[in-house]
Amino acid sequence: MSNEMKNKKDQQLESFRVKDEGKKLTTNQGLKVSEDEFSLNAGDRGPTLMEDFHFREKMTHFDHERIPERIVHARGFAAHGEFEVYESAKEFTKAKFLQDPTVKTPVFVRFSTVGGSKGSAETVRDARGFATKFYTEEGNYDLVGNNIPVFFIQDAIKFPDLVHALKPEPHNEIPQAQSAHDTFWDFIANNQESAHMVMWAMSDRSIPRSFRMMEGFGVHTFRFVNEEGKAHFVKFHWKPVLGIHSLVWDEAQKVAGKDPDFHRRDLWESIENGDFPEYELGVQLISEEDEFAFDFDVLDPTKIWPEEDVPVKIIGKMTLNRNVDNVFAETEQVAFHPGHVVPGIDFTNDPLLQGRLFSYTDTQLIRLGGPNFHELPINRPVCPFHNNQRDGYGRQTINKGQVSYHKNSIAANTPAPASEEEGGYVHYQEKVEGRKVRTRSESFKDHFSQAKLFWNSMSDVEKDHIVEAFSFELGKVQNKSVQQQVIDMFANVTLDLAKPVAEAIGASAPTEGGSNVDKVSPALSQENSVKKPDTRKVGVILDQDFNGNEVKTVLDELKTQGIQPEFVSDKLGVKKGADGIEFEIDHTFLTGESVLFDALYVVGGKSLEQSFKEDAIYFIKEAFSHFKPIGATHGGISWLKEVEIVEKQGVVTGKDMKVFSQNFAGAIAEHRHWNR
Fold first, then answer.
1. What EC number is given for this enzyme (predicted)?
2. Does the active-site annotation cover 587?
């Protein structure tokens, strides 16, 4: 290209370059905008209004920013299963799938990260999506949630801003699937309603051990409505039967390199092995009469309802028991929507939920090519559907007859609306009144009390991890002003967090501040979670000439506890014991790493290869540094002695194989051993 042509091209492009800095905010039509914090509502606690053209333009543009993968939750994996209610929930809701314990409702669940692209790693620090589609006899019900019960923002109009700040920075598309950069933390510092969510995001909850070991939450406040028309505010919880467990940060980063598919592989293999993931469904219920009885607004999506104040009632269990046949056709084409409800489940004026009710349909239109995404096999309800909608991209239904409108006489006015008694959906009749305003209720303005509640509820180890997470993330921020703003913001939560983080990143440490909340919610700490050895993966390090019978005794005992051994050595193939017993090797030191296992069982052997010993000791040291259980028998004990980690917490040795096996299984159940 000649210089003349290059200059012409540069001039042409220059006319499209726009610098927004220092300008007033407008719509795409050039209309100056007076408010960009709040949607247009009927009263300060009322519903969002359809006439809010600014919200609709902003959200529509955001929904259509990425083609073809999801803008958020792009990196996902899914499975089929079934849900059974334990006993009828008729007292609270008329939803049929929550009535009969003998009925199994098919489900499809998609787990995901939020910020990264479809090609990103799975163990990054991030919230996780936990979306469930119930195929009920009354239609599809979608419970679209996360593994964290609160969110960064209170109003959906700010969702594009949040994600723009979280995503790779637009000038260089760096960093991928990371929140440790300037624009994200600049958003946090200048949108302080995010304080509570950030505490969760910097905790161990954001680096789960597996999809099978994390909670799920509906996040929003919904309504249950029973046959008599009585309503309760409700929040939904998924409680994993295996408990809530996490990776440690160094381990999470290494796993991202060693196996970026770690979480999907874990889910896939668990189902293939018959170790079906199970989650109990719990609900928190507040009567409408008690709407204002708490020190938080029940409609605020940045607030939890502490379980000690509003107990979780367990009402059923979901089991994931079948893997997908085709990831694209099922996992990628599934379309969730919080507006897919059934009679007995209704909405509230939670302003974040109100916006999602618009956004989800809008984003599916561009991502799945048009209005017929409900006809894709994974999205089709199990009950029949009839309406006057016709044509469009991807239409599969072949409608017969000449009528496609309501009302009509040619087809006897069918399909006709169903009465409430016939199962027709009737919205809960909530009284709404108020001026059309862009504002938020004063009851939404406390941003730090529950952030401090979360901090108070953590164990000392969990607090240390939060400090380290803040220090890592803010240490990656280049803008010193942003760093200081975040420190000053979290001084409003607790100086016990703000001061050590400030010291770690070279910012000015605050000398005053901190919330005076001293309340504790033990349910928030993972240290109080269920601890069992089931489905834990143990790397067994061995070489030739071990005592095969004794090793087999150990492994058989571990298997009775649901523990899964996989063999690691210097070469693939078969390793033979001195007594002729053989084990097939699953991983070499090159293809397997200690970070891919929950525990190590070090057997050793009579190998004289120095390289074998060095590789084994590297495994041992790394697992020890990640606080994992380590067991050793036979020649493995001498390797532990060599690196001086015998008689440490979670390190089990022994010569009586049955006693050793029982003690080792107990150590594995503890997951981590923080006190060593």
1. 1.11.1.6
2. no
